[in-house]
Design a protein that fits this description.
With 575 residues, this protein is α+β, with helices and mostly antiparallel strands. The protein has 2 domains: 328 residues, Metal-dependent hydrolases (TIM Barrel), CATH 3.20.20; 212 residues, no CATH class. The protein is built from 15 helices and 27 strands. A 6-stranded antiparallel sheet has the order 20-19-22-21-23-24, sandwiched between helices. A 5-stranded antiparallel sheet has the order 3-12-13-14-15, with no helix packed on it. Strand 23 and strand 24 form a beta hairpin. The longest helix is centred in the N-terminal third of the chain and has 19 residues.
Length: 575
């Protein structure tokens, strides 16, 4: 699969050590000492490279992650560890990459663009990454680029810290990543002019095309029910063919992917299948996961194609369109073949200081999570945060809710749940209280410590009592997910490492996660649309428009960047 000339042709690939020595016409004679892999009838492609991933979001250790993705043809990932960085700071990120150094998968570092993700008045995080810390991280041997999971309004407002980090990246000659959700026209031009070279949050084909026209690489994160899906890819393929658009700036990434999706759907191989089925030529599609990525990360001298002098990261496939991987070779060594992973053994145990990170000021009660109306009204008008299916943007709509015993209560029969985000890093006791339509629980409550980006504890429920019960149990197990209903714990998934990851196998985590989702639907009556839990995990995120919900409360994360009252006083207006 020649991604340089965009063609398929027969060849013998000669590997010496960890490099490709030659690509020759097939049928040559070789010394008997040469180890020959007979691949007639198969396709040899460059190893797949993921330009934007958060390993922690898979809820498994790096060793388990490598065991899952290398059989799928992935040989390199550019990982931004800001998830664990927001919880455990620089030491947590070091622990993650120390583990990564022992696996065959190439785990490269996207130096986090901002920790905490937003100013402290918007959200409380435990990690902090200064400009000096950022410079120090670029001394890590794995460092590739400056990551860009930041609120674009910080760039447009010329935030000094952010611009200093862009200038540092320029000085070092590395790629600057970004995210430009919904930016267009002058705002998009200003954003690109400031330095960011790619965006992974496009939610429409028009946005992808406009980004391409101003020279921004589109990192396509296929996320059904949130942003881009197979229908978008089919539309994009038609636009590319009709308007003869160049696809050199298109890349594929996984970003955040849960363990059971990784295990059962796949990694970049799954995304390649989606793109090929959408109408893209297979070789062109393979460029999206190889050469285009390597060029974007400025590592194409060594990676991203099969040619003399390149590092021997090669995938053998039985079927090109089905992206069925027969063998994965990294640095000239077979790490997967014949259905067997030949990489590192058991995952290491993480140190104790990476665990027990859920810290409350005191055990939670229903009263702690409740909102009172102004005056003695028997109802209240509130702003309710929502993440509409198929939309990248979160909204806040005005709803009227009943008041019972002086407390504003949710309306689960209408799909409206109570929401609370509890600060869990410093035991400050700070709690953001509100309402949401995510999951639309009919009964019970869910507590979870995976909430981007600060990963405070989110509680969502049909009543405040079960919310408090689930939240307290979550602290006992060190983080993860807990479901409660009618005063009982009905399901849980422990993620003790930073409240984000488990030391169990991917099979165990995937099974527990599936059981949790089944209980969500069967016991709590949740609306389990596609990727429902991932959608909930992003409800708190104040990085992308238009709203987020943090331990500070409802945040307008668009150009206003301000806290917004949840309860609307009489005569007030929705903003």
């Amino acid at each position: 699969v020649n991604v340089i000339s965009r063609e398929l042709h027969p060849a013998d690939i000669v590997v010496k050590g960890d490099r490709i020595a030659a690509v020759l016409e097939p049928g040559g004679e070789y010394d008997r000492s040469v180890h020959v892999i007979e691949a007639e009838g198969r396709f040899a492609a460059p190893g797949f490279i993921d330009p934007h991933v958060h390993i922690e979001s898979s809820m498994i250790t790096v060793a388990e992650y490598a065991r899952a993705v290398t059989p799928r043809g992935t040989t390199m990932v550019a990982a931004d560890p800001h998830e664990i960085g927001n919880v455990l700071g620089l030491p947590g990120m070091k622990a993650l990459f120390e583990e990564a150094s022992a696996v065959p998968l190439r785990v490269r570092l996207r130096v986090p663009g901002r920790i905490p993700a937003v100013p402290a008045w918007m959200e409380t995080s435990n990690g902090e990454l200064s400009v000096a810390d950022t410079r120090a991280m670029f001394d890590w041997p794995e460092a590739l680029c400056l990551a860009g999971d930041i609120n674009p309004n910080l760039v447009l407002r010329q935030d000094r810290e952010q611009l200093d980090k862009f200038e540092l990246a320029d000085e070092l000659g590395v790629t600057i990543s970004g995210q430009s959700p919904g930016l267009s026209g002058r705002a998009l031009s200003a954003f690109v002019a400031a330095g960011p070279e790619d965006s992974h949050v496009a939610s429409s084909v028009d946005e992808i095309v406009e980004n391409t026209r101003v020279g921004m690489r589109s990192v396509l994160a296929l996320r059904p029910a949130r942003r881009l899906d197979a229908a978008h890819m089919a539309e994009l393929a038609r636009r590319v063919a009709k308007e003869r658009l160049d696809t050199r700036l298109f890349q594929l990434c996984t970003d955040d992917i849960h363990a059971h999706d990784l295990l059962h759907e796949g990694h970049l191989d799954h995304r390649l299948r989606v793109v090929i089925e959408a109408g893209f030529d297979p070789v062109e599609a393979f460029q999206f996961a190889t050469l285009n990525v390597a060029q974007g990360l400025r590592v194409d001298r060594d990676y991203g194609s099969i040619g003399p002098g390149k590092v021997a990261d090669i995938v053998l496939l039985d079927d090109l369109r089905a992206v069925s991987v027969a063998a994965t070779i990294i640095a000239g060594r077979i790490v997967y073949a014949d259905g067997e992973y030949r990489g590192a053994g058991e995952s290491p145990r993480y140190p104790d200081w990476t665990k027990s990170t859920i810290r409350y000021a005191k055990p939670l009660t229903a009263a702690d999570l409740s909102l009172r109306p102004p005056g003695n009204a028997d109802s209240a008008t509130v702003r309710c945060i929502a993440a509409p299916a198929g939309k990248g943007r979160k909204t806040a709509r005005e709803v009227e809710l009943p008041v019972e015993d002086g407390i504003i209560v949710p309306a689960p029969e209408c799909g409206i749940n109570a929401l609370a985000v509890v600060e869990r890093h410093k035991a400050s006791g700070e709690i953001g209280r509100g309402f949401a339509t995510s999951l639309k629980l009919r009964r019970g409550a869910i507590a979870c410590s995976v909430n981007h980006d600060a990963h405070n504890v989110m509680l969502l429920g049909a009543n405040h009592r079960d919310m408090a019960l689930a939240g307290n149990r979550l602290a006992e197990i060190g983080g993860g997910y807990v479901l409660a209903c009618d005063g009982e714990i009905v399901a849980e998934l422990a993620l003790p490492i930073a409240g984000l990851m488990s030391e169990a196998s991917i099979e165990e985590v995937a099974s527990d996660l599936r059981s949790l989702e089944e209980a969500l639907g069967d016991v709590l009556g949740a609306d389990l649309g596609d990727k429902a839990l991932i959608n909930m995990n992003f409800l708190s995120l104040p990085n992308i428009p238009d709203y987020g919900f943090t331990n500070k409360g409802l945040v307008a994360s668009d150009q206003r960047m301000q806290l917004v009252e949840t309860v609307i006083e009489e005569g007030g207006t929705v903003t």
